[in-house]
Amino acid sequence: MTVAQATRTSAAQGDARIKSLIALIDNLTALVAEENSELAKGLPASRLKQVDEKNRLAEVFERTVAECAAGQTSLHVRDRILREQLMEKILTLRAAMDENLVRLRAAIEASNRRIEAVMQAIREQIAAVSPYGASGRVAARAVSSGTMRSA
């Protein structure tokens, strides 16, 4: 194999890796956008069906980024259009993930408010029927003492 052939083969493999990474980013972005849409409707984060697949794709993406950072994988892109497409996809993913973070925090806060409201209702219900006061002693119940008059 000549140097020129080896260079073309290496470039083709690099382009294939980039195209694969772009497809991964597209899938991850679509899942995050779908999750954001459902969160915007007020669905609790625990009921979202995208979580497992999003986590799986995010792990693959993180692993790829870590390999690049460690120098184990090279993503040198000679094709300017492909490089620009990759950068555009990364920026789109970042925007979707930023929105996702905001929406997930809001969903968690809403869940916490719901839990606190339920707990408060339970505390009030227990307090209303408990024979004991805050001190642990039997609470004196207010008794109505009316008088009955007959004419």
Outline of this structure?
By secondary structure, this protein is an all-alpha fold. It has helices spanning 3-40, 51-69, 80-129. The relative contact order is 0.11.
Description:
- With 151 residues, the chain is mainly alpha-helical.
- Helix content is 71%, strand content 0%.
- The chain has helices at residues 3-40, 51-69, 80-129.
- Helix 1 runs parallel beside helix 3 (80-129).
- The longest helix has 50 residues, at 80-129.
Overall helicity? over 70%
The averaged pLDDT comes out at 82
Order of helices and strands: HHH
Strand tally is 0
Q: What is the CA-atom radius of gyration, in angstroms? A: 30 Å
| Content-based structural category | mainly alpha
Estimate the global geometry from the Cα principal axes.
rod-shaped
Poorly predicted ranges: none
Number of helices: 3
What is the beta-strand fraction?
under 5%
User: Distance between the terminal alpha carbons, to the nearest Å?
Assistant: 122 Å
Main sheet makeup: none
